[in-house]
User: Which sequence fits this backbone?
């Protein structure tokens, strides 16, 4: 056919563009991360994440209720304990900061879906995600001993009422161990959201301020993935699925959209992307300087996640996005 292809025909009005739009955001796509601390008497803003604060249990409940009112029905909970040790004992304590917060959320905010981050770094005195010994600045993180503690942690979260547990530690075999432990404790119905492809990323910097989980010595490169590796990420996801993951996550988000796409195409499971603290901080900083239009840029980024195949987006912008979507 020699007539020109005129793709602009379908772009001429907002109504036409809406009619042919392939990707649409809804508030149901979003999960809001929240930090609860038992060390504070009032919310403590996180300097590197404007708009984000460590919350007291009371403030947490208020924030979650506010999120639900905005249409954000799922939160991802992180805890900051007053006491840390080399066994992360507060991670699986029945009255630990996360366990108490889950109970408070589930009783005070009905209808809210509570997902708990299952990791040991916030609870270890050295800040690593597992049981660790040091050789100078080299951190030996013991895999199987860590997995045992992670499984205990997940069960204690489920017992407190968590709707989904989300292991973010990157130990080998932890999904299978969590599944067995949960099933054995009577929580066969509790889904696992696996941080399946989690990279050793510099974009987590601001989070570690928020969660007080910076490793005192060494780094996380012996357990989190090398940012150079995509095929290995597919293997991680395949293993997590084989071990029983119900949902899988890619983290960080924007710099790893190729993996969101490949994982969704290859496995087809509900796939989440984590728009991490550093990605949030970059947008906030540019917006505050007046260099970017915050709303337009954030919505464009969220759309990019979904277009790439993400079914769920974890972002500190969740409430804001839900409110923007209501205005639209
Ligand atoms: C805990 C954990 C981290 C994040 C989520 N869970 C930090 C890390 O692995 O160092 C990062 C989240 C963010 O940057 O927003 N292991």
Assistant:
């Amino acid at each position: 056919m020699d007539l020109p292809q005129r793709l602009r025909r379908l772009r001429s009005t907002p109504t036409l563009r809406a009619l042919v739009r392939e990707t649409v955001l809804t508030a149901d796509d979003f999960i809001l991360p929240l930090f609860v601390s038992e060390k504070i008497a009032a919310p403590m803003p996180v300097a590197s994440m404007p708009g984000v604060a460590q919350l007291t249990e009371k403030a947490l409940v208020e924030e979650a209720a506010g999120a639900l009112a905005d249409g954000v029905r799922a939160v991802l909970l992180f805890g900051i304990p007053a006491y840390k040790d080399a066994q992360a004992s507060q991670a699986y304590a029945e009255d630990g900061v996360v366990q108490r917060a889950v109970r408070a959320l589930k009783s005070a905010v009905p209808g809210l879906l509570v997902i708990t981050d299952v990791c040991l770094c916030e609870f270890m005195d050295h800040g690593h995600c597992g049981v660790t010994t040091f050789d100078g600045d080299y951190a030996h993180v013991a895999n199987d001993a860590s997995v045992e503690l992670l499984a205990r942690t997940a069960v204690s979260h489920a017992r407190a009422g968590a709707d989904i547990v989300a292991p973010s530690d990157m130990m080998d075999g932890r999904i299978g161990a969590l599944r067995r432990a949960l099933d054995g404790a009577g929580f066969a119905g509790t889904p696992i959201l696996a941080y399946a492809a989690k990279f050793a990323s510099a974009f987590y910097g601001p989070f570690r301020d928020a969660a007080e989980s910076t490793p005192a010595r060494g780094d996380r490169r012996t357990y989190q993935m090398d940012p150079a590796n995509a095929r290995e990420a597919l293997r991680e996801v395949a293993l997590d699925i084989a071990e029983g993951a119900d949902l899988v996550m890619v983290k960080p988000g924007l710099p790893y959209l190729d993996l969101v796409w490949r994982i969704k195409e290859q496995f087809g499971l509900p796939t989440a992307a984590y728009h991490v603290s550093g990605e949030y901080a970059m947008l906030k900083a540019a917006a505050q300087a007046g260099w970017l239009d915050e709303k337009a840029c954030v919505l464009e980024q969220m759309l990019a996640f979904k277009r790439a195949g993400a079914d769920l987006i974890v972002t500190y912008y969740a409430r804001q996005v839900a409110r923007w979507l209501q205005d639209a």
User: Anything to note?
Assistant: The chain has a mean pLDDT of 97. Residues 130 and 299 are 36 Å apart (CA to CA).
